[in-house]
Structure of Peptidase S24/S26A/S26B/S26C domain-containing protein:
Amino acid sequence: MPFPPPTHGHEESSIGETLMDHLVSKPSATRIVALDRDFDRLHLEKGDHLVIEQGRNPHDGCTAMMELDGDIFCAQLYWQKGQWYAATDDRRGIVTEDMLLLGVATRAIKNQIID
């Protein structure tokens, strides 16, 4: 054989021993949260799960876990005209100083079990 194939000696790296290794890249800064209500904006339903990474910088259009006055909720964040806006199924508006960003969703896991 004059020339080896281009894939000679190449090995695929493992995606992880388990599915959790693949879904959670930073275990110490990640939590998995089950939704307790529907989030129609993103077609998420009660029982679906979000993989939330704490300390991750938000980006335009991301899904974030927010806290305001002790109430924790999911919101979609948008960057417009030099400021952040948050949108939920019920409300939308400017992100205020009182709101706390708990983390940004990196993945959504749909609940496939039908009741």
Summary: The mean pLDDT is 87. The chain is about 5% helix and 40% strand. The longest helix spans residues 19-23. The domain at 19-109 is CATH 2.10.109.10 (Umud Fragment, subunit A).
